[in-house]
Structures are given as C-alpha cells and as structure tokens.
Amino acid sequence: MIYCILGQTASGKTSIAISLAKKYHLPVISADAFQCFKMMQIGTDKPKAEEIEGLDFYFTDEYEPDHEMSVYLFQQECRPLLERYLQEGKDILVVGGNFLYVKALLFNYVFEDESQEENPYLAMSLEEMQKLLKEKSESTYAAIDIQNPRRVIRALTLLDHGKERADILKENDGKPLYPVEFLKVKIDKELGNKKIDDRIDKMFEEGFVSEVESLLKKYPSTLRPFHCIGYDEILRAMEEGREIDDSVKEEIKIHTHQYAKKQRTFLKHQFEGVKEGTKEEILSYLEEKLNKKGEKEYA
User: What is this structure's pTM?
Assistant: First the structure.
C-alpha cells in the first residue's frame, strides 16, 4: 500500500513521514520540485541529512542545481521505485506539497508536448508572461504557480492550442494506478501562515542569504531551481542592488501564503476519498494501521 500524505506547506507532512519511516522502516518518496537539488538546503526546507540518515528517502538532495529536472523525469524515475517496493510487498510513503508531482506519479498522467523550440515566450520576462496569462485566462492564472517560468510558458502554450489547464486535468482524471490511500493534514489558515512566517524567519537566521550567495559562486542565476519562492525574491533584490532586508523577507512570506492558498484550493478538487485530520490525528491513524499489520513486517 502507498500512503500519500498531503497538505499545504508548513503543515507537518514531512515530520509525519520521517517518524513513520523510522518506526516502521518504510521508504519515502518526496514529491517536491526543488528539494531534490543539492546545496539548496535552507531555502527548500528539506529534511536535514541527520534526520533521514539510514532511511530510504528518495528524490531529496540528489542532483546538482544545473541538472535538468521536470515532473516528467520525476515520474520516470520514481514509478519504478513504487513498483519495485509494491512487488516486494512493502508499504511506501509519498509526501510533498507539489500535487502535480503526486498526480503524475500515481495517476495515468498524460504529458502534453512541451517542446520549446522557437517558443516566443522564452524571450519574454516572467512579469510580461504573467500579465499575458492573466489576460488570456484568469482561471489558469489563479490555479498555477505563476512564479515558476516553465509553468507559465506551458500554460500560455496550451492556451495557444485552445486548451486551458482544466482541460488537461480532465484528460488526466481517473483512478490511481496503484493501491494508495490519501491523507490530508489539516491546519487552520492563520496558524498555517504563522508557521510559514516562523519558518521563513528561521531560514534567514540560519543563513539563507549566504546559501544563495554560495550558489551564485558556482552556478548562473538563470537556473530554473533558483526561481522558486525564496530564492527568486533574494536574487531579484541582489540584481536590483537592493538591501536584503525585512521587505524582501515580507515578499517571500506573502508569496508563500499565496502558494499555500493554491495548495489548499488544489486539494479540495484533485483527490477523492481523502482522509483528513490534524498532524497528530494523521500520525496516530497511520500508526494504528501499521501496528495492525505487525511491526515485525517492517523489521
């Protein structure tokens, strides 16, 4: 069985997965677009090495930031892992806030042709593309991560071919390909935003700006992983010669709140039969299920 732990950012999903993985010797697949990159520890809030030492924790801290990665490649890499563990009769945990990655991994997710040869949008700035996308389709603009240039380019390209994001989601609707139970970690909106803010404050205390500076010494600022929330705002401030002060931190908090809102919206519509509960309730529920199978099974 696959246990897929869903929830907005800062809801406690990863801590549940780590706790269960340690207690029951379960493998974990991280469905996150950026935690797979090395040197991006603080800004992606990935589990620290000592937290997951000895665990089979996949798609975390595996690639250099200039490694080409996409949801399609994630699907191609991680499905064989699922199938191998299921064939061996083992349970697996899937955890992460990128629900597109979750859909691509567990469902019959069909990819559109994403060839970007002579794509006119490649010559546009992110701000120009965002404005154009909003003009073309406000519903798509509201549904995707508009801070991700590739997502915006993909959305604009699909619209040029007469398809909205909702059309693609319909094509990919269906039952999961594998035995899976979906679990959603509920968290009050205000509490969730406070946890986000506290997390971002901690990131800066731990040296987030220094992490970005270290990355820039080795890699160009144009790399896609550097344009996720947090890194993007710091890089933009650096390029504009602005001081990395509380105003930059506030930008990151606002954009992360917006991203969490999109996660909550996505979760309302994209997964059926989801069991909801607080972090403590979900952890207790899964422990009870796994205990019934017998801890010897996971030894």
Answer: 0.80
Give per-residue pLDDT as tens, 109-158: 766 554 445 678 888 889 999 999 999 999 889 888 888 887 888 888 88
The whole-angstrom separation of Cα 140 and Cα 137 is 5
The letter for the amino acid at 246 is D
**Packing angle between helix 149-160 and helix 126-136, nearest 10 degrees?**
40
List of residues 6+ apart from 232 with CB closer than 8 A:
147, 226
Q: CA 124, CA 152: separation in Å to the nearest integer?
A: 11
Q: For the segment 246-287, what is each residue's pLDDT rounded down to a tens digit?
A: 999 999 999 999 999 999 988 887 888 899 999 999 999 999
**Statement: residue 72 has pLDDT above 60:** yes
Measure the CA–CA gap between 55 and 283, rounded to whole angstroms.
Answer: 18
Count Cβ neighbours within 10 Å for each residue of 202-216 and write b for 16 or more, e otherwise. ebbeeebbebbeebe
